[in-house]
Amino acid sequence: MKMIDFFVHSDMKKYDWNIYSGFCVFLFLLVIGQDLIAQTEISYSNNVPLLENNLGFPVTGIQGDTLFFVYSRIGASSPKERAQHISNKIRLVFKNENFQKDSLLVMEAENSYDLIYGDMIITTVTQTDADIQGMEMINLANELREAISISIQEAEKEDKIFKILIRSLFGFLVLGIAAVLYWLLGKAYKRSLNYLDVHRGRLLKNLTYKDYTFLTAEQEMKMILVFLKVFRAFVYVLLAYFTLSIVFSIFPFTRGWADRLFQLIWTPFKSIIFAVWEYLPNLFTILVIFTVLSYFIRLVKYIFQEIDSEKLRLPNFHADWAMPTYSIVRFLLYAFMFVLVFPYLPGSDSNVFRGVSVFIGVLFSLGSSSAIANMVAGLVITYMRPFKIGDRIKIGDIIGDVMEKNLLVTRIKTPKNEEITIPNSSILSGNTTNYSSLARTEGLIIHTIVTIGYDVPWKQIHQALIDAALRTEKLLKEPHPFVLQTGLEDFYVSYQINAYTKESKMLAHIYSELHQNIQDCCFEKGIEILSPHYRAARDGNMTTIPQTYLSDDYKAPSFNLKIEKENEK
Fold first, then answer.
1. Where are the domains of the chain?
2. What is the pLDDT of residue 260?
């Protein structure tokens, strides 16, 4: 305005008009020039990158070199954040150790292209990035792929020898540490042995309870030594395993070995842990079934114990049937529990488990026929009640006291302290004589036979035999002993003495004493026992009675001769 006022109000001279006219031309040219520049910029904007108004942030490579710039943002990520993220991902790819250029791919996405290595997206090229660079998206993406590949490959070449050296040193360091640990473990093992040897008298005592010694100090020492050897071997193997795993993980080409070695140990443990965790519901079910039936079996046992002690009496059910019946009921209850538990056992639904079960069942059925026969016989004998524990019995030619009877066998102790085992099937198929069952109440009749010649009056021998029975200590006075004449043989008479006793387990001693008393009583009464195979000539011979039983004036009879003469005719 000042200039216009100057031109209007000031006095114009000639040269002033020249200046004025030159200024107007300048203004005209300026307006035209600005329009030309604007048209030129519009036409050039389709061929020249729009970089002047955008501030770029560098993406750096492994060695700190600038690979390219990021000018635009994506979503909430600013250009600076994008550049930092891309740089970090390039370093992650470099750390992979086995970079392959062919694995760095350009993948088309919706309105963009992704630069991918493995499962990781390194960067995304958008249309805005391409417009800023003045390029097509696919070309820009391939250019970035080439720049990243060259940067990583050059860094690997320079870093390879240094890394090999560092890794080798680290591997030797790990082996050295392992060797030192092995040496320390060996020294600790030897010191432990020396310490135990020196202080064994103070540290180790006999493990006893009342009069029973569970473990002696020497046995405890052996157990500790075995435990130390096993523990040392376990630690050695564990240390070797970790050492190899660490060494293998140092070098890229052996890292697969480390993973396999780790999986070799960890996979079985992991399988066991997961199997146990998945099996816990079934395990709790089995525990509940077992607990409930265990308490029910205790209740059943209590009832049968009451019957066995005769506190509880049931009609037509003998007390000695109680515990055998309890054994049968318990077996059936456990079988029922197994049926309930079987579906919850691990692997019960597998064909292998079923096949093994069938195989065991076939073996059991084929190989246990005699055992089953004995079990059935034992069950029958239990309810037949032919004998009880402690009874004196006779089975075949065997006489003895019953020590044990079960479902399979019966054990007998003979008077000679011989233990004889008899299968129950043999007992069931033969005869059993019980000396004790009636001896407790009515008394057992023992008997023995004496043969005396016809020259002795029977009344005299009857009295001698009864006197002998009355002298025997373990024979009862009431009921009174009695004699039976069992036979009139060719040369003698058979006399059988019968007497009662309640001591069925002392039969051998009673018979021996009875035979002694029979000899004494017969000799005292002057009765000679000459049968069955003894012959004596009376005339001129000594009697068969011992000298102690004869009178002092006894003399052997002389021979008697009788001569008859015929009358002479």
1. 2-44, 57-164, 174-265, 280-366, 372-434, 444-549
2. 74
